[in-house]
Design a protein that fits this description.
The protein is α/β, with parallel strands linked by helices. It is 33% helix and 20% strand. The protein has an eight-stranded parallel β-sheet with strand order 8-15-16-17-18-19-20-21. It has a six-stranded mixed β-sheet with strand order 3-2-7-22-23-24, covered by helices on one side. A six-stranded mixed β-sheet has the order 9-10-11-12-14-13.
Length: 585
């Protein structure tokens, strides 16, 4: 009896204490929406009063979502999550706003972009005079002998004339200069930089690249594709700390755009050293993960020349280094770019009748590396922009798949920009992923007809709708820093296909629906890098990465008026455009 009486007193006191604690806690935390309940299996966070687009065909839309330990527990109407409220549950009332899965950018150069943010940014410069003016300002800020680096210029914005070293030689006599074109497949060096790199009239064009020359054979300062590597080796490598800072800088920018995961293609160009990408993996990404400095998830691709190295690493560690770092696959190049007139086509360029573009990697080499990579179980991604380059890779992929047998390989073609008749159907038939960048079409629409002629440009360019109609899968990305890292901008571009100042769509038959565009930035993008079991949709069991938009209606979304209110990773708020989280009782 004494024991029973003591137990009764103990439990009575405990319940009273808990009730007292519940009352005080409710009073102290009402503004944060904390609901107290004595229950073991409760949610850490409930998102409610929302229009949730899930990217999950099983439950396309929902009103509420419950999250526990960084993963989604339940998605449904508000009543379906009521039993998950409990002690410590925070409630995010978004007041009818649209919530979508965290965006996945399927093609970025993350560290390159972060480094470029602190260099001479020439994107949008629309005159020779402004180009020179920006270089003058950069020179004033640099000590003598220091390299001036930057890029983003687009010669089409000032009429098409390509820049030459003589534009800037007089103002950069003491500083070597390297300025990459917006597409990264061409760059301008001043004469001092050419001298330091040893590039002269007698320097031969490397395989897969060209040195642009005057009629007398002198270098103009422009280097295309693999020819850029004749100079890049002379530029001092950035410090580890600069690269680590670049990662943080780039990640913070991505979060403001609702991007929670990126596929990082790396700092690699045809013919360049493969070590930069591997050094970045070790000294930047693994360091950041070990120090708790990762802000977004990354899926890393490595130069295909190093396929065996990646295969060995995956056998040792698996593809998942952590919830922040995933080992993706290998990447190679077939051709250059349209803007640099180095994309590989069947027919010559309209404005250069002797130029069909460049094949930057020999077919036998591409085939052998792809065969070995695929046999090792690696995912393969190959850059192809011109119609001939895309057919080349489709043929190559078909041959490799036939030789190595059936498996879930998810071959990717990066860009898939210009497709010959029948190629879109082949993507679907061969189950090839088209990793495409919608915002590129806004730039190319202005000069594609000049390069290709109106008929070819309109028949072949950015065939998003045709690819989907042929059951191909598309994954959207930005190619940042070539274009802005901005999924909402990419969605607008894919849905409307209307460049700035245009009143009509470019090739309107290739516009896609808002639903298709959203899927291409979420579940399809996750599938394209083998992360669809963890990411890409707001489904039970998956990681709780989501974005709160500024709008409440699909009509507003379709019109392109949405912006990012908040970005969550693992249910934790990482970016907010508001002064404080919208957590209410």
């Amino acid at each position: 009896m004494a024991i029973s009486r003591n137990l009764f007193v103990f439990f009575s006191a405990s319940i009273a204490a808990l009730l007292s604690l519940s009352l005080v806690s409710n009073l102290n935390s009402a503004k944060w929406g904390v609901v107290l309940r004595l229950s073991r299996d409760v949610a850490d966070l409930v998102v409610t009063n929302a229009v949730i687009y899930t990217s999950d065909l099983a439950t396309p839309f929902a009103e509420a979502m419950a999250v526990r330990d960084g993963r989604i527990v339940r998605v449904g109407d508000r009543s379906s999550v009521q039993d998950l409220y409990g002690h410590g549950t925070k409630v995010l009332n978004v007041n009818g706003q649209i919530v979508v899965p965290g965006f996945i950018d399927s093609h970025v150069h993350l560290l390159w972009g972060g480094l470029q943010m602190n260099r001479v940014v020439l994107r949008g410069v629309n005159s020779k005079e402004d180009f020179i003016k920006m270089l003058k300002e950069a020179v004033r800020e640099k000590p003598e002998g220091c390299w001036i680096l930057g890029g983003g210029w687009n010669n089409e914005l000032w009429g098409g004339d390509l820049p030459v070293a003589s534009w800037i030689d007089d103002i950069t006599t003491k500083n070597p200069v390297w300025l990459s074109r917006m597409d990264g497949h061409m760059g301008l060096a001043n004469s001092l930089a050419l001298e330091i790199a040893g590039i002269t009239k007698d320097t031969k064009d490397p395989a897969g690249g060209s040195i642009m020359r005057t009629p007398l054979g002198e270098p103009t300062g422009l280097l295309v594709d693999s020819a850029m590597n004749l100079l890049l080796h002379a530029i001092p490598e950035v410090s580890v700390n600069e690269k680590r800072d670049a990662l943080v800088r780039a990640s913070k920018l991505a979060l403001t755009k609702g991007v929670t995961t990126v596929v990082d293609i790396g700092r690699y160009l045809p013919g360049a050293t493969v070590e930069d990408v591997w050094d970045d993996f070790t000294a930047v990404y693994k360091w950041a993960e070990s120090k708790g400095q990762m802000l977004i998830r990354v899926c890393l691709f490595f130069p295909m020349e190093t396929w065996s190295r990646l295969s060995d690493l995956i056998h040792k560690t698996g593809r998942v280094i952590s919830q922040w770092i995933y080992l993706g696959g290998v990447k190679a190049f077939a051709d250059g770019s349209l803007g640099s007139s180095s994309a590989l086509f069947y027919e010559p360029y309209e404005d250069e009748l002797d130029n069909f573009g460049l094949q930057v990697t020999e077919t036998d080499s591409l085939y052998n590396m792809t065969m070995a990579s695929d046999k090792a179980g690696l995912q393969v991604a190959i850059h192809a922009i011109g119609d001939r380059a895309n057919d080349l890779i489709l043929d190559l992929y078909k041959s490799v798949a036939s030789s190595n047998g059936n498996r879930d390989r998810r071959f990717r073609i990066e860009h898939a920009q210009h497709l010959a008749p029948g190629a879109a159907a082949r993507f679907g038939q061969q189950r090839i992923i088209a990793s495409v960048q919608p915002e590129h079409l806004l730039d190319d629409a202005e000069y594609a007809a000049k390069r290709l002629g109106v008929k070819r440009a309109e028949a072949e360019s950015y065939l998003f709708h045709s690819l989907l109609a042929n059951n191909a899968q598309i994954a959207f990305g930005s190619d940042w820093p070539v274009a802005n890292i901005d999924p909402l901008g990419g969605i607008r571009a894919a849905v409307k296909r209307m460049p700035p100042a245009w009143q009509t769509s470019w090739i309107p038959s290739e516009c896609v629906s808002l639903d298709d565009a959203l899927k291409a930035y979420t579940i399809s993008a996750a599938h394209a890098c083998f992360l669809d079991k963890e990411l890409g949709s707001l489904s039970p069991g998956k990681l709780a990465d989501f974005v709160v938009l500024s709008i409440t209606s699909w009509e507003e979304f379709a019109e392109g008026s949405a912006s990012i209110n908040a970005t969550y990773i693992n249910e934790v708020l990482w970016h907010s455009a508001l002064p404080w989280p919208q957590l209410v009782g």
